[in-house]
Design a protein that fits this description.
The complex is a heterodimer.
Chain A: E1 2-5, E2 7-10, E3 24-27, E4 29-35, E5 44-49, E6 57-59, E7 75-79, E8 88-99, E9 102-111, E10 118-120, H1 122-128, E11 129-134, E12 141-146
Parallel strand pairs in A: 5-10, 6-9
Antiparallel strand pairs in A: 1-12, 2-3, 4-5, 4-8, 6-10, 7-8, 8-9, 11-12
Chain B: H1 3-12, E1 18-21, E2 28-32, H2 35-44, E3 51-54
The chains are: A mainly beta, B alpha+beta.
Chain lengths: ~150, ~70
């Protein structure tokens, strides 16, 4: 079981009109590293654990360090939802994602339009970890139980 | 790093930029306009294992679903 502390993220407006006593919230943001083919791993990058996303996504700025010369050479899909403008292109490449001592391989999307560093979605991440956000403590924790494959 | 210190670091960074924390996430070690730039800056600052995050263009709440 991996137990990782949630991280502080600013609220949109400070103070938030609905939560006037809050300047921030605790978000399920964890550190991962990414590998593409035989590239060295990225540095630790902060990614959102997000069951609302069906795939893992990363900002395309990390592509160069992964040896991906042209992000557009990946498999293209147009996305809405997470982006300000609908139908923004995302390009999929096969990567390995390292979470502390665990790792898994998945097709992950890369986009120049992603607002954050990365998103860990259902395909890949949630397929490999039973994920719990435990908000009973302060700070809250993300608990990851690796799903053993047979 | 206290929640308040992390909040300050995030909010003071340039929108759309990249921020590097020290390996133990106790302090900020570098800023950059791209991932590569912030990694280079962190290494020049003596931190070979930084923790990298991207600052959004704005802090508006997003529901990450797709």
């Amino acid at each position: 079981m991996l137990k990782l502390q949630c991280k502080v993220w600013p609220t949109a407006a400070r103070p938030h009109p609905a939560f006037p006593n809050e300047q921030y919230h605790w978000a399920p943001i964890i550190n991962v590293r990414v590998v593409h083919k035989h590239s060295p791993p990225t540095k630790s990058i902060e990614c959102w654990v997000d069951s609302g996303s069906h795939v893992c996504l990363f900002h395309a700025s990390v592509c160069h360090s992964l040896g991906i010369k042209r992000v557009e050479d990946g498999i293209k899909e147009e996305f809405g939802g997470i982006f300000r403008d609908p139908h923004r292109p995302v390009y999929f490449h096969k990567v390995k994602i390292i979470v502390v001592s665990e790792q898994f391989e998945t097709m992950a999307g890369f986009s120049w339009d992603l607002g954050v560093t990365g998103i860990l979605g259902r395909r890949g991440f949630f397929q490999n970890f039973v994920t719990t956000i435990d908000s009973s403590g302060n700070p809250p924790h993300v608990e990851l139980q690796k799903i053993s494959s047979h | 790093m206290s929640p308040e210190a992390r909040l300050k670091a995030l909010c003071e960074a340039e929108p759309g930029s990249w921020l590097a924390f020290s390996e133990d996430e106790s302090h900020v070690v570098a800023h950059g306009k791209t991932y590569d730039e912030v990694v280079d800056a962190a290494e020049k600052a003596g931190e070979s294992n930084p923790v990298i995050t991207r600052i959004p263009n704005d802090w508006s709440e997003r529901v990450f679903g797709c």
